[in-house]
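Private note to self, pasted from the team thread so I don't lose it. Backbone tokens:
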């Protein structure tokens, strides 16, 4: 939905400030909660976030890109 696209665009500013796994998790939870609303599942979100962090090797810009493309 356009609402999610706008939220992601607004979040890009925060994306540049991500410097730790914990900050990425907070960023990702915000996007996932917005994307899934009432269907948001914290356990599934943990799996997604941990999987992305495992693939991104500490590159949080890459991690944010993976997250965003997974929702497109």
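Design output:
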């Amino acid at each position: 939905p356009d609402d999610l696209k706008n939220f992601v665009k607004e979040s890009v500013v925060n994306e540049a400030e991500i410097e730790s796994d914990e900050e990425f998790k907070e960023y990702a939870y915000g996007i996932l909660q917005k994307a899934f609303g009432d269907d948001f599942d914290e356990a599934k979100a943990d799996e997604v976030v941990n999987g992305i962090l495992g693939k991104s090797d500490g590159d949080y810009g890459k991690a944010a890109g993976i997250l965003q493309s997974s929702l497109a």
